[in-house]
Amino acid sequence: MELNELKEKIKQFNFERDCYKFHNPKDLFIALVSEIGELAECYRWLNDVELSKIHADPIKKKKIEEEIADIMIYLITLSYKTDIDIFKAIEEKIEKNRKKYPIEKAKGIHSNSLEGFKGKE
Q: Which of 26, 65, 103, 113 is the most buried (most CB within 10 A)?
């Protein structure tokens, strides 16, 4: 399914339930952050072995899938309510990141918001 088709399904769902009128950017953002928190709860304090077990368990994995879906629904709703073309925004951000983190300096290197980019000199 394409993103635009998905966006239309979400709009229709919200319109049918008359809840679109409550979807202002502030409240959508708060809902989005809440859903991200619910996803974080699924992972909190787990080591790699425990994470592997969760992803192998169909019931637990389904819970993670549902949280990711909730996040995407709110993100898509926020994008159309603020008239942002999410495809265009992603493409532009990838290009910006491509320039900021060139392969020859960034490959295999991480960055930290407090420590900065740890790219190769």
A: 65
